[in-house]
Specification:
alpha/beta; three-stranded parallel β-sheet; 15 helices; 27 strands
Length: about 550
């Protein structure tokens, strides 16, 4: 009989601690029950992850904002136990001569005045132990947020500071974040002077994220010489000024109704990635804005409702994404080195696009699924011969697509599309018309089909499959340009994905799982999800319109 050897326990403590760093806080707690030696390893583990959701049941976590006093009293007792556990764990660690690598705290505060001394002490102990990472998140139903203690500003060894839902103010002029590289503030009350101190007196700061913070109207970042990544999201700012000579990524997210009146980021000339949302730039202002960043490679803009006709010319750009610009009318791109182009949830524009990359197009037929809408989409797609994905959402609309009238508009076949994803909740009476419209717009190699309604799913799948499978090719013999029925060679069901579990099932497994060889029986017993068809066309790609 071979004797079992515990090789892990014989490893050096720092190696075991490294292994433990990949475990959850629950799993780290469980190893202490193995032996006294493992319990000592847990006590000396320099990563602390205190999360009340691990300590409370799901029902208890849901009671945090409960208005019923009896539930709050029960929760208060559980939170008291949680705080005592934190207290004991930190005090045991502080008796050892180790530095702390990480201190994470997620806690609900039912009484700010009562809880603040404990939290202040924990943050002070972590600071004394030269913590490297502070990750602090607080929940409270009080109008008074928890205020971080002044000891946080003496955490000279901290490299990452992540703070959520509290108040950050400095009563002195001392900020000793000499090694801070990443700063993230989310829903934090902070004044303008404090923001300037954090960014200007952290000499190694490389990443800065501000999201839904309040307490200041003007944001000025001017001394962050090593700042490379910055994200700003706010509905309260009146002006934004960023002077960061080495900034490479910038995200600006605002609400167009209350966006800042002044946005000055023009001195960030090394910018390579820019994302902005809700900025009310006119067409001319957009052109001036984009032209200020000659090294730009990645451009994303969304919810820019003032944009109508834009032109972008760049040999540097590698990626462009346009989203939810609801007044877009024309799009002109001269971007020969573009590697990715996404156009989504915006009106179908007239276009002149010099870009050889694959396209991703997502569109929504809100009011009409008619000849005019289909014609505009087909013309737009025809600019490219690399449509990777086309996604169409068809809501209940006025539908008036007539295949006969479309023949007059085009004398060539539609373009190929690698994947067509179609989502609809239109009534079954429109399914034949919808299919004709879709396959007049493009010829997809793969078709994903989903109904918004679980009840309507069976009819949608069955109707589309029957129409695709049992094609009547006598419909347009007198026409030179035939409809899709003449060119579709074969159709196969190649997979299904249930929306509840997200599991993808191939066709063979699907048939085996459902114990049926009859596809007509299959549709009625499928769970709510997305079916995938493979379509084979019977003419060579060289005959397609480029």
């Amino acid at each position: 009989m071979v004797e079992k050897v515990d090789r892990i326990s014989g490893l050096p403590p720092f190696v075991i601690h490294h292994i433990m760093s990949y475990l959850s806080s629950k799993e780290v707690g469980q190893i202490s029950t193995l032996s006294k030696g493992w319990n000592q390893l847990r006590i000396s583990f320099p990563i602390f992850d205190f999360d009340q959701t691990d300590f409370l049941t799901e029902d208890e976590s849901d009671q945090i904002t409960s208005m019923f006093e009896e539930r709050r009293l029960a929760l208060r007792e559980r939170l008291k136990e949680f705080m005592e556990y934190i207290d004991a764990s930190l005090l045991r660690f502080c008796e050892l001569e180790f530095c702390m690598r990480k201190f994470r705290l997620f806690i609900s505060i039912l009484d700010v005045e009562e809880s603040a001394p404990y939290i202040d002490k924990w943050i002070g102990l972590a600071t004394e132990k030269e913590v490297k990472v502070f990750d602090l998140e607080f929940l409270t139903d009080s109008d008074t947020p928890y205020t971080l203690p002044q000891s946080i500003f003496y955490a000279k060894s901290v490299t990452v500071l992540n703070i959520v839902r509290c108040k950050l103010e400095n009563v002195s002029d001392i900020v000793r974040f000499n090694y801070l590289r990443k700063l993230s503030l989310d829903k934090v009350f902070i004044n303008e002077e404090m923001v300037q101190k954090l960014s200007g007196e952290s000499p190694l700061l490389e990443e800065m994220f501000l999201s839904e913070c309040w307490g200041f109207k003007r944001l000025c970042v001017s001394k962050a010489l090593k700042l490379k990544i910055m994200s700003i999201g706010s509905d309260e700012l009146e002006s934004v000024e960023v002077v960061a000579p080495n900034l490479q990524e910038l995200v600006l997210e605002f609400s167009e109704e209350i966006m800042p009146r002044v946005i000055d980021v023009f001195e960030c000339t090394q910018l390579k990635k820019l994302k902005f949302m809700g900025i009310g730039l006119t067409d001319l202002e957009f052109h001036h804005f984009i032209s200020s960043f000659p090294l730009l490679e990645d451009l994303i803009f969304a919810y820019c409702y003032a944009l109508e006709r834009i032109t972008i010319s760049s040999n540097q750009l590698k990626k462009i994404r346009v989203s939810s610009c609801v007044n877009m009318k024309a799009l002109n791109l001269d971007t020969p080195n573009l590697l990715s182009f996404t156009y989504e949830y915006s009106p179908i524009p007239t276009s002149c696009i010099n870009a050889l990359c694959p396209w991703q197009v997502k569109c929504l037929s809100k009011l009409m699924f008619d000849i005019h809408w289909c014609l505009k989409l087909r013309e737009f797609l025809g600019v490219s011969n690399q449509i990777e994905t086309l996604r169409i959402y068809a809501r209940p609309t006025v539908s008036s697509f007539k295949l006969e009238e479309c023949r007059k508009s085009f004398t060539s076949r539609p373009c190929y599309v690698e994947t067509l994803e179609f989502y609809t909740n239109m009534p079954p009476s429109e399914y034949r018309m919808l299919l004709d419209g879709l396959l007049w717009i493009c010829y997809p190699r793969t078709l994903f089909l989903q109904s918004y309604s679980c009840r309507a799913q069976y009819k949608l799948f069955e109707s589309f499959y029957k129409e695709l499978k049992n094609r009547d090719v006598s419909c347009c013999n007198s026409h030179d340009i035939k409809c899709w029925r003449h060119y579709l060679k074969d159709i196969k069901v190649v997979g299904f994905m249930g929306l509840k579990d997200g599991k993808l099932i191939d066709a063979d497994s699907l048939m085996k799982w459902l114990s049926t060889d009859n596809l007509s029986d299959l549709w009625s017993i499928l769970p709510f999800g997305v079916v995938r068809f493979q379509l084979d066309w019977c003419f060579p790609e060289s005959t397609m319109k480029a």
